[in-house]
Amino acid sequence: MTTAPDAQAEPRREQEEFRTYCRAWLHDNRPPPAPVRLPQHPIETMTRAQLDYLQAWQKRCYDAGLVGADYPKEYGGGGNKGFQRIANEEMNRARTPFLVNMIGLGMAAPTIYHHAQEELKRELLPGILSGEQIWCQGFSEPGSGSDLASVQASLTPDAASPGDFLLNGHKVWTSLAHFAQWMILLVRTSREHKHKGLSYYVVPVEGHRGVTVRPLIKMTGEAGFNEVLFEDTPVKEAWRLGKTGEGWNVAMTTLLHERGAGPLVTPAGGVGSEGLAHNVRGLIALAKTQRRNGRPATEDPQVRARIAALAIRERGLAENGKRARSGTLVDHPMRLPLQVKLAGTELLQDLAAAALEIEGPAASLYLSDERAPAEGQWPLAYMNSFGATIAAGTSEIQRNILGERVLGLPKS
């Protein structure tokens, strides 16, 4: 894997100057309100109007140097070190819209950066960073559960194009596939060995022969997920990342970054649903508007105790984030990122559950109901939160990884 940029090696003065620049640019370039309701999370982007608005915002941030800041210039990046984290913090602080090409930025780009041939890096990375090309991930398959190594989608030689292949198979839970131009894909190239029979490719999706994308309707009523079917789909050998049969190792790079434990900081920032914050501050704001026994919910001792407990967990996550930025305080490179993924997604779920209890019967009112507290966003957040605790490995998988790879416990 290519050596990661070292945030600690960058002169402090240059980082402070970059922070000042980001803050001023975001102040002067905050986009106008979206003409449509925005989703809570990038992978829940459902309509073309939502995508157009968010894609245009990512392009502006990219042109301003806030996206891809740590990637080399020859791949469309800013050529800096330790700057992306600062840009992310400032986008969150400014509460601007999020960056929509989440899978491209967080999974495809770092995997291509570490494993693709030089020509492919130069061809694909600029479009990912700018958001002009939307990407999706082809890992999950029907019947495979969390066993990624059981992938059955396979490549066979293409008689019409020697050296290239035909892809057949079925991927599922494919977020953003309904807008994606490209997919990162794990496929079986040999059935003689479970792990060494896997290879890793990037494959065009939109308009590519033999590709069918079907939306999957979630319990929220939205369709951010899809299933993708490949039938004799042409795949060029030049689209392979890593060596044939080493797809499992390449996939580990993707998963490390998806879980926030990879060496490249993912460009990410901003908020969804037009600025609604699903954090303790948002929960307190909700409690002030709801009533318990004729008084504001914020005066109920049980509500106050529950919010306080959640605030402690939220503060702990924030302090862990600060700790992760100091090399002398990190005893294992994977510990804090994996902890943050596990604890952060479960905190989001518990925050939403607390919000529903504070709302009481009104929690049954949804987005379209004018009487719904906080525009019905908390029930939506609660339903969406289950996807967060499943994606990139369930909470149970995360605990296994922490136990085995960080604490050194015996494998289960």
Description of the structure:
By secondary structure, the chain is of the alpha+beta class. The chain has eleven helices and ten strands. The protein has helices spanning 12-28, 48-63, 84-94, 102-115, 118-130, 247-258, 280-289, 301-324, 335-359, 377-388, 395-406; strands at 135-138, 154-157, 165-172, 182-188, 198-204, 211-216, 225-235, 240-241, 291-292, 295-296. The strands form three sheets. A four-stranded mixed beta sheet has the order 1-4-5-8. A four-stranded antiparallel beta sheet has the order 2-3-7-6, with no helix packed on it. It has a two-stranded antiparallel ribbon with strand order 9-10. A hairpin with a 7-residue loop joins strand 2 and strand 3. Helix 9 (335-359) packs antiparallel against helix 11 (395-406). The radius of gyration is 22 Å and the shape is globular.
Brief descriptors of the model:
alpha+beta; single chain; 412 residues; 4-stranded antiparallel sheet; globular; disordered N terminus
Major β-sheet profile: 4 strands, mixed
Radius of gyration: 22 Å
The ordered H/E elements are HHHHHEEEEEEEEHHEEHHHH
Helix content: 40-55%
Beta-strand fraction estimate: 5-15%
Distance between the termini: 28 Å
Query: Mean pLDDT, as a whole number?
Result: 90
Number of strands: 10
Class from helix and strand fractions: alpha+beta
Tally of separate helices = 11
What is the approximate shape? Answer: globular
Can you tell me the residue ranges where pLDDT is under 50 for at least 5 consecutive residues?
Answer: 2-10
- Reading side by side through the largest sheet, how are the strands ordered? 1-4-5-8
